[in-house]
C-alpha cells in the first residue's frame, strides 16, 4: 500500500516492454540511409550548375550551346554521384546500422529534438569512420592523404544526411501496430 492518496493499490507497475525491430526492418532502415547518403550530396551540385549556366554568356548567343545545357547538367550529376557514391553508401549503411543498434537497445524517441540529435550524432559518427578510412588507406599505401577540406566536408555532409535520413529510418524500425 502506498502513502500517496491518488495511487491505487490495484494499479499495475509501469514497465515498458522493449520490442526489437525485425531484421527486415533493420535492412530497410540501412538501405534507406544508404540511399540518402549516396544520392543527397550529388544534388548539391545542381544550384552551382544552374548559377553557372545562368551566367554563361555563350548560352545567350549560341542556341546550340543552350540546347546541350540539360546534357551538361546530367553529366555533372553523374560526376558528382560518382565522386561520393562509395563513401556515401558506406557511411549511410553504417548510419542505418547505428540507428538499428540504438533502436534495438532503447524504446522509441518521443520528440523531434531527440531524433535530430540522434541523427546528427549518428551521421557524424558514420561519416567520421568512413573519412578515417579514406585518410588511413593512402597513408598505408605510401600515398598522400586527402586534403583537410575534403575530410571536413565529408563529415559535414554526414551530419546533414544523418539529419535527413533519421526520421524515416526510425519509422521503419518502429514496431508494426495492428
Structural features:
single chain; 178 residues; mainly alpha; 72% helix
Globally, the shape reads globular
Helix tally equals 7
**Unreliable residue stretches:** none
Largest sheet: none
Summarize the structure in words.
The structure is a single chain. The protein has 178 residues and is mainly alpha-helical. The chain has one domain (23-172). The protein contains 7 helices and no strands. Helix 1 packs antiparallel against helix 5, helix 5 (69-105) packs across helix 6 (112-140) and helix 6 (112-140) packs across helix 7 (148-173).
Gist?
The chain is mainly α and 178 residues long. It has helices at residues 23-39, 45-54, 57-61, 63-67, 69-105, 112-140, 148-173. It has one domain (23-172).
List the helices and strands and how they pair.
Elements: H1 23-39, H2 45-54, H3 57-61, H4 63-67, H5 69-105, H6 112-140, H7 148-173
Helix pairs in contact: 1-5, 1-7, 2-5, 5-6, 5-7, 6-7
